[in-house]
Every structure is written in C-alpha cells, then in structure tokens.
C-alpha cells in the first residue's frame, strides 16, 4: 500500500496536509537548523524529521487498508507492519541518491550544492503535467467507480494534458539560459555555450 494508500482511499485532503507537514519537517526545520549552526547535519536531521513524519502519518491514515475500515488499531502494530516498508524505502532513497554521494565524494560539498540545485531546477518542468494529472485523478476515479471510464476519456485526458504542457515546456526550453540566470545566478551559466 506504500505510496498509494491515501490515493486509494481518496483522502485527498490528508494527502495535501501530509505534503505540507513533510515539507515543513524536511525543509523548514532543516533550514532553521542550518541557520542555528548545525550545517549539513541540520539538513539531514530535517530530512529525517520530514520523512519520519510522512511515514508515520501516511501509515496511520492508511491503516484501514491494513486492518479493515471497522478495526480500530493502535499505532504499535502499524509501525511493526510498516517497518519492512520503511527499510525498503530507505534502500530506494539510497539508490536514488547515489549520484549525489558520488558528486560529494569526488567533487566536494560546494559542487554538490550546485549539482543539487540544478537537479531540483530540472524537475520544475515536470510539475505542470504532474499537477494536471493529479487534478484529474478524482474525476477519473469517480468515472471508474460508475463503470463509465472509457478508453476515449483516458485518451482525451492525455491529449489535454499534453496540449496544456507542451507550449509551457517549449517556452521554458527556449528561455533556459535567461531563466537559469534569473533564478540561479551567474554561477550556473558560466559554461553555457
């Protein structure tokens, strides 16, 4: 159920709340700790707090998938059930961050900061199609529940998502250097040809 439990239960309000709690834990607390003098350790503590908050609340709010909707379960059996999932997620996070570990070990902390910023910026163009697809999810689930979800409906959703996304992505691509210069500064465009 990891990663889809709240979607499957259509608890979209809790998904939004959970994303806010995760971001506050991961980034706000991490940044506060950096300013308090903890350095990179503060960022790591923020990551752990944010991810632990996400895991605990996600598991708690998805418990009816584990135990059934009528069963009132305590948090301890849920955590016991979720521990292998959390360990699996830790392995996934490690594998997803091997590139950063490599950059850190070979180039140093300053270049890791540059690399991480560029990688984060590269995800921005993905936000528009992902946002559109996410906003269509409740409508698609509603149609599926009524057995009215057809191939044509899915094709139209994909077509409209593409039609809305492509022009924005082309503009971002065409204005790549000025956008990078505007948002990230001179340091990120020094090798731009």
Low-confidence stretches: none
Share in β-strands: under 5%
Task: Please work out how many helical segments DSSP would assign.
Answer: 8
Secondary-structure-based class equals: mainly alpha
User: Which oligomeric state applies?
Assistant: single chain
Walk me through what this model shows.
The protein is mainly alpha-helical. It has helices at residues 5-8, 12-61, 63-67, 75-96, 98-107, 109-145, 151-174, 176-184. Helices cover 83% and strands 0% of the residues. It is flat, with a radius of gyration of 21 Å.
Précis, in short:
This protein is mainly α and 193 residues long. It has helices at 5-8, 12-61, 63-67, 75-96, 98-107, 109-145, 151-174, 176-184.
């Amino acid at each position: 159920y990891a990663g889809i439990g709240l979607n499957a239960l259509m608890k979209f309000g809790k998904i939004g709340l959970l994303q806010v709690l995760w971001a506050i834990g991961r980034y706000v607390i991490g940044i506060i700790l950096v300013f308090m003098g903890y350095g990179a350790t503060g960022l790591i503590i923020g990551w752990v707090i944010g991810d632990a908050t996400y895991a605990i609340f996600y598991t708690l709010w998805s418990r009816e998938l584990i135990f059934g909707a009528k069963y009132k379960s305590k948090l301890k059996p849920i955590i016991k059930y979720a521990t292998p999932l959390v360990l699996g997620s830790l392995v996934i996070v490690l594998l997803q961050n091997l590139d950063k570990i490599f950059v850190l070990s070979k180039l140093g902390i300053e270049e890791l900061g540059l690399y991480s910023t560029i990688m984060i910026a590269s995800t921005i163009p993905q936000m528009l199609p992902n946002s559109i697809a996410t906003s269509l999810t409740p409508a698609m689930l509603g149609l599926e529940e009524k057995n009215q979800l057809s191939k044509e409906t899915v094709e139209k959703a994909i077509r409209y998502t593409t039609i809305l996304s492509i022009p924005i992505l082309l503009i971002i691509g065409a204005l790549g250097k000025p956008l990078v210069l505007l948002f990230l500064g001179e340091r990120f465009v020094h090798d731009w040809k």
